[in-house]
Specification:
Elements lengths: L6 H33 L5 H15 L20 E3 L7 E6 L4 H19 L4 E6 L11 H15 L2 H13 L12 H10 L4 H9 L4 H13 L7 E4 L2 E2 L5 H12 L2
Parallel strand pairs: 2-3
Antiparallel strand pairs: 1-3, 2-4, 4-5
Helix pairs in contact: 1-3, 1-5, 4-5, 4-6, 4-7, 4-8, 5-6, 6-7
């Protein structure tokens, strides 16, 4: 971790990045994601689950030849934790950075979950998985999850959470163009509060690639089959549509 920034300045930078990400979400994604969620016909999770399971089955046991050591600061081995560890409730969110339904979920719920975590009402555990690598020409889900791990390892959980928010605020289209390059991932990491010199090597070299693969396999080992998967205090939230999952989550967290 760089010694050039104090803990206070890093925290301020990560908060500023989170605020910028929230502004981008509000301006660029909320209306479109909400339209997909409410007008686009209640996106069915079942199809996404089956696609995710198939992709994982083909690639989840991959050996990349890299160490599987978790990044420093990882929570539950495969998560980024945000909020007080002794909060009265834990919300786990498993998502793929390319998954459009995950994007809709984040646009709708990220601000509420972040505010609740900041208030001490819940602990948010973010689990990145890569089930859509084969829908990407650049293996963006894997590279993005690795980049978040690098930010966590070198800088901290607040900055990793801010990086997560920025990635979803500028999410590329599944199967389309516009997937961030490594340089762009580095730039987003810096915007989230990290030092370029600290994160560039790990992002370019896919330092935590095996960790991402193992996290995706662990996701399936838990019986989960698609993203987003939301778990509250150990109970997976059910629902045939994303709208139903969100309604149940809001009921559980009292928002």
């Amino acid at each position: 971790m760089s010694k050039k920034k104090s803990a206070a300045s890093r925290s301020a930078a990560s908060r500023a990045a989170a605020e910028r990400a929230a502004a981008i979400r509000a301006e660029q994604t909320r209306r479109e994601r909400r339209r997909q969620l409410l007008i686009g016909g209640a996106v069915l999770l079942v199809g996404a689950l089956l696609v995710g399971l198939f992709v994982w089955w083909q690639s989840g046991t991959e050996d990349t030849g890299k160490p599987s050591t978790p990044p420093a600061g990882a929570s539950q081995t495969y998560a980024v934790g945000y909020g007080a560890e002794d909060a009265p409730m834990t919300v786990e969110v498993y998502s793929d950075f390319l998954c459009p339904v995950c994007g809709a979920f984040e646009a709708e719920m990220n601000d509420e979950l972040t505010a609740a975590a900041d208030a001490g009402d819940l602990r948010l555990e973010i689990f990145p998985v890569a089930i859509l690598d084969r829908s990407s020409e650049t293996q963006f889900p894997r590279r993005a999850a690795n980049a978040m791990a690098v930010v966590l390892d070198t800088t901290g959980a607040e900055e990793a959470k801010a990086f997560h928010d920025l990635l979803f605020a500028q999410q590329p289209t599944e199967g389309g163009a516009g997937e961030p390059t490594d340089d762009e991932l580095v730039a987003l990491a810096v915007e989230a509060g990290a030092e370029e010199s600290a994160v560039r090597p790990g992002i370019e070299d896919l330092q935590f690639e095996q960790w991402v693969v193992d996290a995706t396999a662990d996701f399936s080992d838990k019986g989960f089959t698609g993203t987003p998967t939301v778990v509250v205090d150990g109970e997976q939230l059910g629902g045939e549509t994303l709208a139903e999952v969100i309604a149940t989550l809001r009921d559980r967290i009292g928002s």
